[in-house]
Amino acid sequence: MTDLSRRHLIKTAALVAGAGAGAGVSASTLAQSAPAFSAGSEGQSQGRHFARITADGSDVRALSLQQGFNRRWFAGNCEVIYLCYDTEGVAAALDEVIQRYGRRFSIKSGGHCYENFVFNPKIKAIIDTSALDQMLHTDHGYTLGAGCSNWDTHVWLLREGLCLPAGSCYSVGLGGHICGGGFGLLSRLHGLTVDWLSAVTLVVLEKDGTPAIKTVSKHSADADERDLFWAHTGGGGGNFGVITAYHFETLPKAPEAALIGNLAWQWADVDSARLGALLDVFAELSNDAPREFFGLFNLNHISAGGQFNLVYQIVSSEDIPVERLNAASRSIERQMTDIAAPVASVAPIIGQMCWLGQAPAKSKNIHTYYEALQQLNGSGPNQRSKYKSAYMKKAFPSDQVEKIHHWLTTQPDDIAPDDTAQTLVQVDSYGGAVNDVDGTDTAIAHRESIMKLQYQSYWVQNRSEPGDKDDRTGRALVRWLNDSYADIYSEYGGVPDPSSDPTGTVDGCYYNYPDIELSRPPRSIHDAMALYFKQNFKPDSKQSLDDSFAPKERHLMTIKNRWDPGRYFVHGQSIPFE
Ligand SMILES: Cc1cc2nc3c(=O)[nH]c(=O)nc-3n(C[C@H](O)[C@H](O)[C@H](O)COP(=O)(O)OP(=O)(O)OC[C@H]3O[C@@H](n4cnc5c(N)ncnc54)[C@H](O)[C@@H]3O)c2cc1C
Fold first, then answer.
1. Fold entry, domain 257-515
2. Is the pLDDT of residue 33 over 60?
3. Which of 125, 214, 323, 340 is least surrounded by Cβ atoms within 10 Å, i.e. has the fewest?
4. What is the arrangement of strands in the sheet containing 50-54, beginning at the earlier edge strand?
5. Which atom of ligand 1 is nearest the CA belonging to 513?
6. What's the pLDDT at 6?
7. What distance in angstroms lies between residue 180's CA and the mean position of ligand 1's atoms?
8. Under CATH, what is the fold of the domain 3-253?
9. What is the pLDDT of residue 459?
10. Residues carrying CATH 3.40.462.20, the chain
């Protein structure tokens, strides 16, 4: 470690101790105990703050740390990966990175970013927080290291009798996931993960690049620190500093059991009108069904065995005890199957959170909650992929249903059926407890939607290796996904822009599902930010035409300016400066 690093550590240690002064009880306590909370198990046992992993072929670990979950993204020119073991390690690593590489670095936790914000040819160094994997239960609540995976977190919390309404895909890292919102199968029941967040420990950079450790919370005495906390309730990763730990004063009780059901239909039996009827019922369920219900309506491309399917979960609760789960599922099943007769799933079920095998017609089983976590924890195989998103406040207009039906039941001329077989429009339930929170209380602005759509395409590029560019098929699939999306939202300018929608149907996009097309010319980064954050982006943000929110005091762009004065934290869709 350099002398300068040591000096900075002394400074940051002082900041940690000072951060709590005058703050509310919980903020103060969290701040004082933050460094111990965020130590990773490996580094702690070895007494090291970080490991410097050189990507020159001399260290077998480097290659694995240069590629994301999405095989499209590779940091081919990265020279060093700083594997950090505690908050001080992050501060020291950042110090060295800024001196050696300036702004050409990125931050990584689980490596699941949809776009190349972490792994790209421009960056020379990666601050890797995946070893900050400690989870602690203290007198003040629960602390989850930024490097914990979804799976480890869910299992650890279940041992405590608790749960987190986060995503279920096992390998996603909390570092990027929580600060972007953290939505999952329990979100209709318990809201978003950020709705439970109490404080965040992170390392920020002063204008001259000096690292400073902060624990910020909604109780912080300093208004700027309260703003910084708010920015972490949906403002997303790679924007304000390096997060080392998330703190929760309380968390909801875990369910005891869950019913997981699957209904599959043949595209051959479902014309556009029937698809519209099924989607209408799904929209009603998302709006009105008991909050224990969550549905993943996977509208696959017809090449996926000619079928599409609804996977749904109903968790037990005080209102729906285990013995009533079957009864609770009956009306859901009936409403959907009255429209079109379901069949057995012949093809593997694909889509985020639910990579499952084949299933008999109307399959339905009650699982222990642990088993349910295992059932619906699929991240899918490591492949190449492209994603897009859309929030919806109302049921699908008929023209959108017709277009979705057309795109999903037509084989593109330039792509073979085997290559489109992992392409789908996934319609997830939303709303419920998510919408109990005001759209300005957290940085997540989307608090009126009842469904969240995710356009996904996965493909295998045969005979490829890390760093290979997309081949012709990959490029065609990305184009197909972009074209279908632009067509489906053509009446709003090709994106689900609430400020162009007088009917109040669409409501923008999810920042944790980033899509680089949203900021490509003729659109700008400001246009993309308006879709991701609506009124929370900047003071004169475009809002929904029917927006009822009061003018906001907090804006992500203002907070970005305040907390990243040296403009160090920049990626392909980072929050822009004023
Ligand atoms: C298979 C799969 C399933 C998913 N399922 C869900 C889901 O169910 N619900 C949902 O809401 N989202 C889901 N997502 C999206 C996911 O929430 C985002 O991709 C998230 O940003 C991933 O976080 P990560 O740490 O794994 O990724 P990374 O690629 O490591 O990071 C993502 C972003 O966060 C930044 N970042 C990472 N760590 C830190 C840190 N410690 N401090 C500051 N910034 C950091 C990165 O720089 C980058 O900009 C899924 C993604 C995948 C690939």
1. Vanillyl-alcohol Oxidase; Chain A, domain 3 (3.40.462)
2. no
3. 323
4. 50-54, 80-84, 125-128, 105-108
5. 15
6. 36
7. 8
8. 3.30.465
9. 96
10. 257-515
